[in-house]
Write a structure and sequence with these properties.
Elements (H helix, E strand, L loop, with lengths): L1 E7 L5 H17 L1 E4 L2 E5 L2 H14 L6 E8 L25
Antiparallel strand pairs: 1-3, 1-4, 2-3
Subunit structure: Homodimer, forms a heterotetramer with a Cas1 homodimer.
Protein name: CRISPR-associated endoribonuclease Cas2
GO biological process, one term: maintenance of CRISPR repeat elements
Length: about 100
């Protein structure tokens, strides 16, 4: 399933900046950054539960927020892109040299 993860982490102090880095690093492990605080993640149901649990442990529930948009399996028909697009298709082969 394709899940869009968006977050807003309060960075007014060094603890917030540290949380922001941790959230971003975790999201990079699961998906592709498509904007500063937006990730497209192709996840199994188990990975979806796992990333939600890990993110919940990182954030400050009183100041930070994370949203999960489950786009399902046929997500390609639900996404429109405008302008520059430097992302990859997670369903296609990726060549690494």
């Amino acid at each position: 399933m394709m899940v869009l993860i968006t977050y807003d982490v309060n960075t007014e102090d060094r603890h917030g900046r540290k949380r922001l880095r941790k959230v971003a690093e975790l999201c990079v492990d699961y998906g592709q950054r498509v904007q500063n605080s937006v990730f497209e993640c192709s996840l199994t149901p188990a990975e979806y539960v796992e990333i939600k649990e890990k993110l919940f442990e990182i954030i400050d529930k009183s100041t930070d927020s994370i949203r999960f948009y489950n786009l399902g399996k046929n997500w390609q028909h639900r996404v429109e892109k405008m302008g520059f697009d430097d992302t990859y298709d997670p369903d296609k082969d990726l060549l690494i040299f």
